[in-house]
Amino acid sequence: MNEPAPAASAAEEPSADEPIITPLTEPADGIPAVVDTPEALARTAAALAAGIGPVAVDAERASGYRYGQQTYLVQLRREGAGTALVDPAALPDLSSLSEALDGVEWVLHAASQDLPGLAEQGMHASAVFDTELAARLLGMERVGLAAVVADTLGLGLAKEHSAVDWSTRPLPEDWLRYAALDVEVLVEVRDILAERLERDGKAEWARQEFEAVRLAPPAPPRVDPWRRVSGVHTLRRPRQLAIVRELWAARDENARKRDTAPGRILPDRSIVAAAVAAPRSVPALLAVPGFTGRYASRRAPLWQAAIDRAMALPDDELPPMRGPRTDAPPPPRAWPDREPAAAARLDAAKAVVESFSKKYNVPVENLLQPDALRRLCWTPPSKVTAGSVTEQLAARGARQWQTDLLADALATALTSAAKA
């Protein structure tokens, strides 16, 4: 339970300009029992269907503890239905909740993080209001849920359990309290943010952004995911990369079987250290930094076998130092040397986006996706016009409000850069 903060001394009294934040420590209706039986799920679905207005939705995962991004708790709150805490581990199919909420707007914070996991449980939103995205479009300095709740309602929302292992069963009472509070005032926050969006003329921008998040396709599998091992960029030889690749694959398979986050089984830094040392035996491996401790000797033969496979590869089967070719442009820092004209276009285009960012008080990355801007500048249309710029940006996922706002100015900037 969150304890009230001690009274501030005279020297610590908040100034007249600072808002007074009231801690939000208990759900208004108490902590509900976890829904973990088909009968309780049916009752919950019926209550939600009979509720009024939007539904607040949140999901908790066990990132850093379990393999993958499975949802381990779903929280919902709707006027007239109260709060429900649903256990997807006991009830993998939550499609009945989705059916009960057909046509109802879901209010989430950072919806792109929760919607994929909810879809795996059979939950699909008819409409979305994302309070984090709304806060970004409004130019709020801090967009975490606690900060947005404080800004809009003057309430203090504790976040001390945000990174716990939500696969734990039974869930402790203070975790359930935290989970219930995450949806306690989300609809009220939504209403205030919606008013601000209307006031600032950004309601349609937000609608398009929310719909893009709702309809976003699943992320495609990564090519050569082992190349994302932290520190791999420091390696200079293909044989070292082969060791990283084999260790990553062995770790991933072991983590999947154990349903454990890969980094808890073998940290990235240990993989890179082994690639540098290239040990030829288990005792040599156990002397490498990162392979000590009581569990190291148990799994050492597994890791050494992976290293041995990499060491036995013929040279023509070693991975290249560079990753697979893609249609993505090179890093912008290389543009001045490789393609000065593209660098000039990028400088001009970035200046346009930055000026609009200041004018409308929207972060640059929310005004236009950085990747779409880079691709436009690296390979512009053969004939640069507002229409051709709009077409190219839209093909890369830009929303209509973004192209309506920026296309003409970007076309002018690209044309001017070509003449300079």
UniProtKB/TrEMBL annotation:
Q: What is the lineage of its organism?
A: Bacteria, Bacillati, Actinomycetota, Actinomycetes, Micrococcales
Q: Where is the composition biased (Low complexity)?
A: 1-19
GO biological process entries: nucleobase-containing compound metabolic process
Pfam families this protein is in?
Answer: DNA_pol_A_exo1, DNA_pol_A_exoN, HRDC
Region of interest called Disordered, as start-end residue ranges on this chain: 1-22, 314-334
Coiled-coil segments on the chain, per record: none
Q: Where is the HRDC domain?
A: 237-317
Superkingdom, taxonomy of origin? Bacteria
The record's section on SMART domains has: 35EXOc (SM00474), HRDC (SM00341)
Membrane spanning stretches:
none
Example GO molecular function: 3'-5' exonuclease activity
Name the chain's protein.
Answer: Ribonuclease D
InterPro entries for the chain: 3'-5'_exonuclease_dom, Exo_C, HRDC-like_sf, HRDC_dom, HRDC_dom_sf, RNase_D-like, RNaseH-like_sf, RNaseH_sf
